[in-house]
Design a protein that fits this description.
Layout: H1 2-25, E1 30-33, E2 39-41, E3 50-54, H2 60-64, H3 68-76, E4 80-84, H4 86-103, H5 119-130, H6 134-138, H7 159-173, E5 181-185, H8 191-198, E6 203-208, H9 211-223, E7 230-234, E8 244-250, H10 261-271, E9 272-284, H11 298-305, H12 314-323, E10 326-333, H13 335-351, H14 353-360, H15 362-380, E11 385-393
Parallel strand pairs: 1-3, 5-6, 5-8, 6-7, 8-9
Antiparallel strand pairs: 1-2, 3-4, 9-11, 10-11
Family: Belongs to the CFA/CMAS family.
Protein name: Cyclopropane-fatty-acyl-phospholipid synthase
Pfam families: CMAS, DUF7884
Length: about 400
């Protein structure tokens, strides 16, 4: 009993110091509510933007070192509740994490993970994230079920239009022609290969490691009457054989692993026709060293969202691409586009919140809710980025390249 009382007294002292520090140096619009009924204002405000309820004393250590990882963990485990507008909740989370970084005298320690990325592990990681259920994703994705960054030419398009624009932008970038063969690595629910066959007249192979994606994409191909031009495979990219005129990889290479990037790009080179073009579309880190940032929530993401996911810096992408035998021809940053895409997803998720909670349970509801909104904020504040890189086999003649990028934007 004596030791428990001493521990509780020390915890109360740390809590008082933490609250005083935040009021003086951070002024965060949060009303803190403890399990015992005590309430504290963490800032000087008329109305709090967010109410943070600590449901049990065991949650206080998460709060006293409130990194995004700790806050996310406490929220998912239902040790804390967060009430307010979702954008305010995410903003407050970043403010609390920034205050913790300041108190620590600099960046909080980050660990550089070294994942093995065996075929079995990668398949398990993919199925963990994508096989929640197709009905779950249908509730908040666009009708085409495109689960990657959309492309907003003006900024006021609806999500479905922007996703179709993204697919057309990619296929136009690689100059896809009728009758050509296209391999889509990580095809999702089939939207890109369906469009490539319908509009561009290509013959396509789409691969995925997700059983749910494979099943639905196969159904969609049959329903569209394209079974003679589109094949969906449940297959690892390392097992693909053959030659393709064009290759796309959209939102997939984040699962490859940084140490495997040279082998990944080498595999694309082996599969690409001598006069072919490929495009890699993927999320990158702003950190050129270990690929994390002080407030990126990477531990939370690895534990709950994308197991074994790794984000390289764009510099590493281009270096490993060249080492893999590919020449980068065009690099386009789409950070603002992914910010808007994620805001769309998060809004749609909120609108379907009760249905989603009933479908997948409280824990997964909380995981995806905080993940979508948190990523939107991360793209807005340069915690994450996204690049499309068009490439071809290195060592080819320059005379076959276009003079300008105009062809990417001319409407057919």
């Amino acid at each position: 009993m004596f030791f428990k009382q001493a521990f509780d007294k020390q915890l109360d002292k740390q809590l008082d110091h933490w609250i005083s520090d935040l009021r003086e140096n951070a002024d965060i619009p949060v009303q803190l509510r403890l399990w015992n009924g005590m309430e504290y204002a963490l800032g000087r405000f008329e109305r709090p933007a967010v109410t943070l309820t600590v449901r049990e004393a065991a949650a206080l250590p998460f709060l006293l070192t409130p990194s995004l990882d700790n806050l996310g963990e406490a929220y998912v485990q239902e040790k804390i509740d967060l009430d307010g507008k979702l954008a305010d909740i995410i903003s407050v989370g970043y403010q609390l994490s920034a205050a913790a970084t300041r108190r620590a005298g600099g960046a909080l320690a980050k660990v550089a993970h070294h994942f093995t990325h065996s075929k079995q592990e990668d398949k398990a990681s993919i199925q963990y994230h994508y096989d929640v259920s197709n009905d779950f994703y249908k509730l908040w994705l666009d009708p085409g079920m495109v689960y990657s960054c959309a492309y907003f030419e003006r900024g006021d398009e609806d999500l479905a239009t922007a996703q179709l624009q993204k697919i057309d932008h990619i296929l136009t970038k690689i100059r896809l022609q009728p009758g050509q063969t296209l391999l889509d690595i990580g095809c999702g629910w089939g939207a890109l290969v369906l469009r490539a066959a319908q509009k561009f007249g290509a013959r396509c192979v789409g691969i995925t490691l997700s059983q749910n994606q494979f099943d639905l994409a196969t159904e969609r191909v049959k329903a569209a009457g394209l079974a003679d031009r589109v094949e969906i495979r449940l297959q690892d990219y390392r097992d693909i054989r053959g030659t393709f005129d064009r290759i796309t990889s959209v939102g997939m290479f984040e699962h490859v692993g940084k140490k495997n990037l040279i082998a990944y790009f080498s595999r694309i080179r082996e599969l690409l026709a001598d006069d072919g073009f490929a495009m890699n579309h993927g999320i990158t880190s702003p950190d050129p060293d270990i690929g994390t940032s002080p407030m990126d929530g990477s531990e939370f993401m690895d534990r709950y969202v994308f197991p074994q996911g790794e984000l390289p810096h764009i510099g590493l992408v281009l270096t490993t691409m060249q080492k893999g035998g590919l020449e980068a021809l065009d690099v386009e940053g789409l950070r603002r586009h992914y910010m808007k895409t994620l805001h769309n997803w998060a809004d749609r998720f909120e609108q379907q919140g009760e249905t989603i909670r009933a479908m997948v349970g409280e824990k997964k509801y909380r995981i995806w809710r905080i993940y979508l909104a948190g990523c939107a904020h991360a793209f807005e504040t340069d915690q994450m980025a996204l690049f499309q890189v068009v490439c071809r086999k290195a060592g080819r003649s320059a005379t076959t390249l276009p003079w300008s990028r105009r062809y990417m934007y001319d409407k057919s």
